[in-house]
Amino acid sequence: MPRDAARRHRRAAADLSVWPPAGATAVAVSDGYQRLAERGYGYGPAFRGLTAMWARGDELFAEVRLPEAAGGVTGFGLHPALLDAALHTAVMANPDAELVLPFSWQRVSLHASGASAVRVRIAPAGPSAVSVELADDLGLPVLSVAAMVARPVSEQQLRAVLSGAGPDRLFEVIWSPATATSTDAPASYRVFECAAAVDDPVTATYERTHHALAAVQPWLAEHASGVLLMVTRGAVALPGEDVTDLAGAAVWGLVRSAQTENPGRLILVDSDVPLDDSAAATAMAVGEPQVLLRNGQAYTPRVHASRAVDGILVPPGDGPWRLGLSSAGTFENLRLEPVPNAGAPLGPGQVRVDMRAIAANFRDIMITLGMFTHDALIGGEGAGVVVEVGPGVTEFAVGDSVYGFFPDGSGTLVAGDVRLLLPMPADWSYAEAAAISAVFTTAYYAFVHLADVQPGQRVLVHAATGGVGMAAVQLARHLGLEVFATASKSKWDTLRAMGFDEDHISDSRSLEFEDKFRAVTGGRGMDVVLDSLAGEFVDASLRLLGPGGVFLEMGKTDIRDPGVIAQEYPGCATAPSTCSSPAVPACTSTCSSWPHCSTPGCCDRCR
């Protein structure tokens, strides 16, 4: 019998269909969470779901409803905040008892998914255990726990965990020198060298994990005892070293899972030299499942309270600051640094902005990794409040909320060019406004300034669920275009939610979009393609363009020569559509978000 059908024919072990429970006495809970907070239980709004409670002998009953702050139930068998609130019944009913937290669970069964409100019964199930039953408003079972054991915790421990102050909640793995704990070697052992075979890390990861699995499974199946040493080189690192074997790191993850199921049978060893009998003996003598060998010394991992306070980015003590780099090339070089000349006099056409939100986009990643072609600062777009206006500025006044581009980078207090800023709509948050500018500007520049699109034209937007893709879809529809979209299949539900039907959706990871969209359009193809793909996907997109079609290139890895394209695809016009610099006055209007555009020189197409 299907689970749902079976559920309809039974009730919870205790009858929870009669509600409130017969013979039970109501227990006041109106100030329950305040009393728990005074004792050290720090339940925030998302976990304050207990709304009513009753007691009957040693049984406790309660009503629990998922708070709005916890979000929806989608994606959960049972929302964890709902289950946690159900357990509050026990601690709220015993205000003078010692502080306890759940420790172990036995025979947990989920009978139904999607509950947002439940009836709760908690009853003794042993000296230090309780049973827990959850049912819906008909008394049908939602979840049952045969035994939940709680363990005492001191008030000091609980407050330390909840305070979030200092490094107490931060931990790190530190490889420490280890000494032999045993001189008795296993009766048998085997060494499996997971050596690098290919240079490509993706291919190497696939091959090495499969080879490792092929070594582990037969060993465990054919040998009832003994140890298999899985040896890598550079998969993990000591301080001052680099991880040089990414595929080996994947092997470590795979074998760790096998170790939990087969304790004592597998040892992970990362060695700086090939493993001989002496090195193998050293690795096994420490009695640990994970060992590093460097210059004959064994190291084992231990979890310590984090010492790396300097790893936490702390703003400068005084004055405005920004996110910067000590040097490009790695995210580890990010730092918070003072904004130079933050108080310098404003020039004509400038305003000083107290930034409330700064966008982070792919441009910032390229800057951080040193892949940008010229010097640039992190944070080219954001939103904030005007705190000072320069000579001749009439567009904005002190106190105005603005958003847009900041070519000189963004910090907590920066100067901005009024030509690159716009008033922030009252119903937008600063975070929403900060993330708007680059994506809509790119789409607007591509469609209006480069392609000169006309209502009724057909446009293909590749990667339409990305930032620019979503902006392009909205703008194209606003301009009266028929929009076709590609995305990976896992994101098709997002496209459907954006209003696309099946005829206008295809896969960005397959060439099938060419034939599908040609058929859907009756062979006419596209008037405009906004591309961000590469290789044969570019060729398929070019073939899909009709006579006089426009190919707009946003990608960076496969930029074609316009002359070659003109020869191979006669009648096709090409243009790079990415605004690589945010300081382009002509690109400061974004149609679908700025219906009342007042940008100087605007073509009025967006009105």
TrEMBL record:
Superkingdom: Bacteria
Protein name as catalogued: Zinc-binding dehydrogenase family protein
Keywords noted in UniProt: Phosphopantetheine, Phosphoprotein, Transferase
Domain (PKS/mFAS DH) ranges: 1-159
Stretches the record annotates as C-terminal hotdog fold: 24-159
Gene Ontology biological process terms, A to Z: fatty acid biosynthetic process
Gene3D superfamilies per UniProt: Medium-chain alcohol dehydrogenases, catalytic domain, NAD(P)-binding Rossmann-like Domain, Polyketide synthase dehydratase
